[in-house]
Predict the 3D structure of the following.
Amino acid sequence: MISKAPAPGADTSGDPYLPAHGNGGYRVRHYELNLDYKVGPNRLSASAVLTAEATQALSRVSLDFGEFRINRVLVDGKPAKYLKRGAKLHVRPAKSIASGAVFLIEVHYVGNPRPVRSRWGDVGWDELTDGALVASQPVGAPSWFPCNDHPADKASYRVTLTTASSYLVAITGNLVERVIGGSTTRWVFERPEPTATYLMSVQLGRYDELELTGRGWFPHTGVGTRRFTLGFGRGHVDSVLQTVPQRAAVPPRLRRAFERDFGRQGRMIEMLQRLFGPYPFDEYVIVVTDDDLDDPIEAQGMAIFGANHVDGRRTYERLVVHELAHQWFGNSLTVADWRHIWLNEGFATYAEWLWSEESGGQPASALARSWHTRIKAKPADVRIADPGVARMFDERVYKRGGLTLHALRAEIGDPAFFALLKAWTGDHRHGLVTTEQFVAMAEAYAARSLDAFFERWLWTPALPPLPGA
């Protein structure tokens, strides 16, 4: 069924950087995705059921969605009119939705998933040489399911994927069912924690499966005191410094190199829990593709690396801890909008420096001095608290973000600084965060105004001197 396009404003989030992604008038509570994927022809047949709550009276609803053929759309079980225009799916239910009402949108679709083109390159569902991956940050989620594609609209998920049994499947979530039916296998994953659309990921490949027990990698055979169903199963949360179940999907040819490159990940998790508080999810999953990737991919409870990031010499170990730190900063604590991205990348960068010192490498102070010198040589034209959409992923947002935290540590002292970090992750666990909230909490732990400090480090393009340099 086809309807007229909605009025302007129904299909915008109002995000200052990416207003075309995300939609007004409702919030999604839960996504139920049922996917049937054929790797060879890259063919996806799927349905999506969104449980949403109206934040205003609605005569129509807009979703972000890619290039698929839509077979039917229902609202609360009844056929609804719809119009697919560009990257938006506009839905007009048979009956208007009252403000505060909970409603269901069901979309059945089929097609060849392809990445979304963006100013940062192609993002979203992509084919591998033999398999597939999803890299959605920041706008790639609509490449495989209809959604409200804005980081502030976090929801829970249940994802079912059926594909050829020769492929291992990893989806961001806890594996709750795996049914082998001859030539195909059905995998069911649940992500109960509030999750941004860009942090949902699907990975398929011909991988070996490994499990990390204690501080070393072992074949997935149930060795040790914990036993899990074959696959990426639900782990058990222990005490504050919990033992985090860790699994990996790795090409057989890279297995030995992987065991060395990721062999200290257990120690990393221990360090980050000491500094940032309990790990925020049930498990941590690593996927290494058999293809090269430009950069690792961040996902909720998961990180994806390319074959080029595994060499058996720990060359890219800083990336291992960087992606792990995102589980606290970016995934559990998610930016309310993209202006605040330094809260993701600056913290993950500083985690790299802390791990370097912890593991016997350069101390954080030396790395801060080195990066201060390098950033000072670059143009002073970025305010990291509001870098602009074109510079969201600028190296200076990452490194100057780390420098800001190092300078704050010097400004308020170690006891207040590390107490602040634990309070920051604890008070906002699975929530949304802004720069203004962080500044307010930092001032509370400093017991004084830090206006001048943050004006210099967050809002002034010129790089301030590094304390103690």
